[in-house]
Design goal:
20 helices; single chain; alpha/beta; RNA-binding; Isoleucyl-tRNA Synthetase, Domain 1; Gyrase A, domain 2; five-stranded parallel sheet; about 15% strand; four-stranded antiparallel sheet
Length: about 550
RNA sequence: GCGCCUGUAGCUCAGCUGGAUAGAGCAACGGAUUUCUAAUCCGUAGGUCACAGGUUCGAAUCCUGUCAGGCGUGCCA
């Protein structure tokens, strides 16, 4: 059962009945019925402000409209009580039996509870992290990884087919600089004189790459005499090294990409030039002073953007358009990109490009994973890849663990500028909210272990829902009823943090239940009823944690 | 200058796309365990929702302006 949908049905039918009986004029333009969850429990399970919104049109007081609807609403068997209060809210209270029946649904569906099957699944591509292959992944990438993977999980739970994708920027200036940096380090190790490139990468890992290449490819690169060719060779090797280590870090973070897409491959296959002619055919590109310029301003951007420089080299934008054209060609219904905050100025031009290629506006969405301030000992740590002074995702995983790290990133909305307190996350791991969730799950498992020890067999005993007629049990059941729609709306709004907030509430509800009620007792009917309840909680917790990519331990 | 994000309890942040008396965690203080795991629970305290207008039955939420912080504003990626 779904509270909102059920309430919507009841209200709209009640309105129809009222119209049929002449309470409301049949030609009135009534507003759309909206259902809300009241903040206060005593305001009902669901409520609607329909009478407030229709008062003007019907030229009647909201209270009297509510009173008219009340008799029709209370005729529904799911509804125990209807209230019309204060300014004109209609509050609905569901019957105890209706609510308790939902437990059967949860226990029956088990690990599928909250997961929807669609007749026509959407094919969704979600691209995230896509960090430059010039070094280890940093904290911002870790945040994007946690958010992107969780969002993908949620969209899958909503019945869609989701491909996770990583775009490798293995082309252009940065990569050349990486090659130069590696060359300098190789010469250094060999005791030869070498100037380190001014804009180069100073991190320790560059030395490791240099050593790695010396150990494995010395015979190959020594044959290359042309400096430019050598740098290119080293760059390719270094990129491969970095991509592999990024892939490993991400897999250890429970993130697996279906596709690693190389930017370089777009250039080599001719897709980039093909995309240019495609845009030219559509009249979206013009030439000026030897450059080719995309008419971004015609598609919502502030100004037009260069796609081919006057020396003939394509810009990053053109490659990116080619990349997204490839995604379109692969037949996705929806395309989602998650970018870092430093790219937000780029959204307008790429969305413009999508529009110019005729891709439906609402189907392309760029989300920004906002910055992360790493806080240590109450001081903000500045992160800079080039200066080599940054905290890596690898360090994060090693320090605080995957579960805690993922949870920290997911529990905040992605557009908030996150202060990540490393000392706290490390030091006080027992106070960490993620353990609170996991502990709830472990506690329930512990109850079942004890039940088994006592030889209690659930299937042999009857249940009696009257044992659930207490505030703690009712609170839990009502909350669990809302899980599927929580998953749905988190997917619709692309807000994974809602799931973590929801699970927090559920764990809270359970811990409270646990202190108030004893599950195992001599009364086998009561025991069996309670076991069904906590089993449901365990199912929902586990399903929710699975969405977040966090483990649900059976013991702690 | 222009654009994007943010501003809510001492700190970190929620607030279900406009609802009723603004919430949680942490930190502080006081209490609870002969019981299925105390990594738990209960209570107390803590607020000019940055500020000023506007929209309406009703605003933390929407519109305008101001202030503050961050980021962006390349023929870099």
């Amino acid at each position: 059962m779904n509270f909102k949908i059920k309430t919507y049905e009841i209200i709209t039918q009640s309105i129809e009945n009222a119209v049929r009986h002449g309470k409301f004029p049949s030609d009135a333009q009534l507003p759309e019925v909206r259902i809300e969850y009241p903040r206060e429990q005593h305001h009902g399970d669901t409520s609607t402000s329909f009478s407030l919104e229709s008062a003007k049109i019907l030229r009647r007081s909201p209270m009297s409209i509510g009173e008219d609807l009340k008799e029709y609403i209370s005729a529904f068997k799911e509804i125990e009580r209807v209230e019309v209060v204060k300014p004109g809210f209609i509050n609905l209270f569901f019957s105890f039996e209706t609510i308790c029946n939902s437990l059967d649904e949860i226990v029956r569906e088990k690990d599928k509870y909250g997961f929807i099957k669609k007749d026509k699944p959407e094919k969704i591509n979600i691209e995230f992290v896509s960090a430059n292959p010039t070094g280890p992944l940093n904290i911002v990438s870790a945040r994007a990884a946690a958010i992107g993977d969780t969002l993908a999980n949620i969209l899958e739970a909503n019945g869609n087919i989701v491909d996770r994708e990583f775009y490798i920027n293995d082309f252009g200036n940065q990569v050349r600089l990486l090659g130069e940096s590696v060359l300098a380090r190789i010469n250094e190790i060999k005791g030869e004189k070498s100037e380190f490139p001014e804009e180069g990468y100073h991190g320790q890992y560059v030395k490791e790459i240099a050593q790695f290449i010396i150990d494995n490819f010395e015979n190959e690169y020594e044959k290359i005499t042309d400096r430019k060719e050598l740098i290119d060779y080293l760059a390719v090797k270094a990129v491969r090294f970095n991509v592999e280590s990024q892939r490993k870090d991400l897999e250890d973070f429970n993130v697996k990409f279906a596709k690693w897409f190389s930017e370089r491959s777009l250039h080599e296959s001719g897709e980039v030039t093909a995309t240019l002619s495609y845009l030219e055919e559509r009249g979206a590109v013009y030439e000026k002073e030897g450059r080719k310029i995309f008419r971004a301003a015609d598609y919502g951007d502030d100004k037009d953007r260069v796609v081919v420089r006057n020396d003939g080299r394509p810009t990053y934008l053109l490659a990116d358009i080619a990349y997204h054209r490839d995604k379109i060609k692969r037949g996705y219904d929806r395309i989602i990109d998650i970018w870092g905050p430093d790219h937000h100025g780029y959204i307008a031009r790429l969305s413009g490009a999508m529009r110019s290629m005729g891709f439906d506006d609402g189907k392309f969405r760029v989300l920004i994973a906002q910055q992360v301030n790493l806080v240590m000992e109450d001081e903000t740590v500045r992160m800079s890849k080039r200066l080599g002074n940054f905290s890596t995702m690898r360090e994060l995983i090693d320090e605080i663990g995957v579960d805690a790290a993922r949870y920290f990133f997911i529990m905040r909305s992605m557009e908030s500028h996150l202060d990540f307190d490393l000392t706290l996350a490390k030091k006080e791991s027992s106070e960490n909210p993620v353990f609170y969730l996991q502990y709830a799950h472990a506690r329930i498992c512990s109850i079942f272990r004890e039940a088994e020890k006592r030889g209690i067999d659930l299937s042999r005993h009857n249940r009696d829902i009257s044992y659930l007629n207490n505030p703690e049990s009712i609170y839990l059941i009502k909350l669990m009823i809302k899980f599927p729609e929580e998953v749905y709306s988190a997917g619709q709004s692309c807000e994974p943090h809602r799931i973590s907030a929801y699970l927090m509430k559920l764990a809270q509800g359970f811990h409270k239940f646990y202190t108030e009620h004893r599950v195992l007792s001599d009364n086998l009917t009561k025991t069996s009823t309670y076991l069904t309840l906590v089993d449901s909680v365990r199912i929902v917790l586990k399903n929710g944690l699975r969405l977040l990519g966090i483990s649900a331990p059976e013991r702690m």
